[in-house]
Amino acid sequence: MRQLDECNRARILIIDDEAVIREGCQQILTDDGHDVQVALDGEKGIARARDMGPEIVLVDIRMPGVGGLEVIRQILTMDPEVIPIVITGYATVEYAVQSIKSGAFDFLPKPFSPAELRQAVRHGIEKRRMRARMHALDEEKRRLTEYYTSVVSHQLRAPIAAVRQNFEVILGNMAGEITDESREILTRASVRLDELMELIQDWLSLSKLDREKMQESFAPVDLSALVERQVELVGPEASARSIRVETRLDDDLPAVLGSRAALGEAVANLLSNAVKYNVDGGLVTVRLASREGGCAIEVHDTGIGIPEDKQELVFDDFYRVRDERTEGIRGTGLGLSIVRKIATIHGGVADVRTEPGAGSTFRILLPAWQDEHAQGPTGSTFAASAPEATSTGRAEIT
Amino acid sequence: MTTKKKRILLVDDDPDFKSAVRKILEKGGYAVAEARNGTEGLAMAEAEALDLILVDVVMDTFSEGFDLITRLARSEKASSIPRVIISSLALVQQMDTVHPRELGTVQIVQKPVSATDLMTVVRDAIGASAEET
């Protein structure tokens, strides 16, 4: 019996209805020191895979009942890290292609020698190891990027904060009385610094929106409470311009799975825009409603509206509608990019309906979440504007 | 009537920021002591009579302020002095998910801060600790 060290040993499941192959492979691989289990057909193989959590699966392609390719598909759904190796007596190019398409890593045509079997298994183990190393590197890269972003943003902010804090002292006459003209100049300068701070904040938000990381923190979200909280926060900004903010929260809303912090930020951005681009004394209506099988957050304003040819552009990074009516309105041009990215990560969409001069309705449409025990269709996605939106929060919790 | 001025320790590595905050606090009737980093801050907090400690987060290291706060919370001599974080990190934006108490402080303040807001925070922090004792 050959002794393999820990890292070259694997949990292997052999699924084959042909006893000679099954037992032969089991004998060779067990002797080599692997942890080997066998199953007589596809159905038993899937059940066994669920119990043992194999690292490598050898699957006969032609079996009565559940076929080999379907077995591979189901096992990969359980654990995408499994390395499937296909065994077949029908060694044709077509079969090979079909197997690889189904997710098989390697192909063993019958008859094969013990050496060929060992080589396929060895390659499988190496593949797993490389994959693990890649995952570790990806994780490291993500961590470093995040750290770097935080450091850069802090280094940019700190000096602005120091300057701004000293303006506060001067404007408060704490370093002696200042003239009205000086006050006006310093006040304008302070506003510009505040905007620069906001820009850094938005840029940081946008760079930190990591799909996988956010989806890891997905949990059921109480959208009504979230909307009410954000409406409360925008209150002072709205009442300063006599803008009313009304909420209409429907009952029986579908449950939504997501990141509370991120969705809060998205709603905050929509509300802030609805106030900024509104007319003094205008109205903002926030509506939570059941739409298209999902849940919609709709923010309507009675503001200046968006010209038709600019409606898609407003979701682009740094894009801002510039005309005489928006001249005095400040912004970073990142708010709606953030909204759309957050919606997309949630498997949803962000869009706008608007009439120039008659206000706009911005909408975030989120897919309904139904937990495993619930009836009916499982979580869907709205992929209208987001081709990569096929991975939903649902997948993370099953 | 003469009451002894309340004393506030400012732990921050940015001299420009510190001098501005010192001005605001002194105008508000407080006495101010300064420390440049966590080590100095801890030593001063344990040696001097203080009513409040304002702690910056990013100093020599990225988490120096958090480390100082942990050490202050465990310190026999200084744990009863209220602590407030004052940082240009975007901590306030995460307040929905992080409570100041979890960070061992009574309040988190975003730099820059208006003189009015700073005075309110300072008064509340000192007041709350006076009520507790």
Question: In a few lines, what is going on in this structure?
Answer:
The complex is a heterodimer of chains A (398) and B (133). Chain A has 398 residues and is α/β, with parallel strands linked by helices.
Describe the structure.
The complex is a heterodimer of chains A (398) and B (133). By secondary structure, chain A is of the alpha/beta class. Chain A is built from eleven helices and twelve strands. Chain A has helices spanning 19-31, 42-52, 68-78, 93-101, 114-171, 180-208, 211-216, 223-239, 260-276, 335-345, 393-397, and strands spanning 11-15, 35-39, 56-60, 83-88, 106-109, 219-221, 244-249, 256-258, 283-291, 294-301, 349-354, 360-366. In chain A, the strands form three sheets. In chain A, strands 2-1-3-4-5 form a five-stranded parallel beta sheet, with helices on both faces. Chain A has a five-stranded mixed beta sheet with strand order 7-9-10-12-11. Chain A has a two-stranded antiparallel ribbon with strand order 6-8. Chain A is elongated and about 95 Å long. Chain B has a five-stranded parallel beta sheet with strand order 2-1-3-4-5, sandwiched between helices. Chain B has 133 residues and is of the alpha/beta class. Chain B is built from four helices and five strands. The longest helix of chain B has 18 residues, at 115-132. Chain B is globular.
Topology:
The complex is a heterodimer of chains A (about 400) and B (about 130).
Chain A: E1 11-15, H1 19-31, E2 35-39, H2 42-52, E3 56-60, H3 68-78, E4 83-88, H4 93-101, E5 106-109, H5 114-171, H6 180-208, H7 211-216, E6 219-221, H8 223-239, E7 244-249, E8 256-258, H9 260-276, E9 283-291, E10 294-301, H10 335-345, E11 349-354, E12 360-366, H11 393-397
Parallel strand pairs in A: 1-2, 1-3, 3-4, 4-5, 7-9
Antiparallel strand pairs in A: 6-8, 9-10, 10-12, 11-12
Helix pairs in contact in A: 2-3, 5-6, 8-9, 9-10
Chain B: E1 7-11, H1 15-27, E2 31-35, H2 38-47, E3 52-55, H3 64-74, E4 83-87, E5 107-110, H4 115-132
Parallel strand pairs in B: 1-2, 1-3, 3-4, 4-5
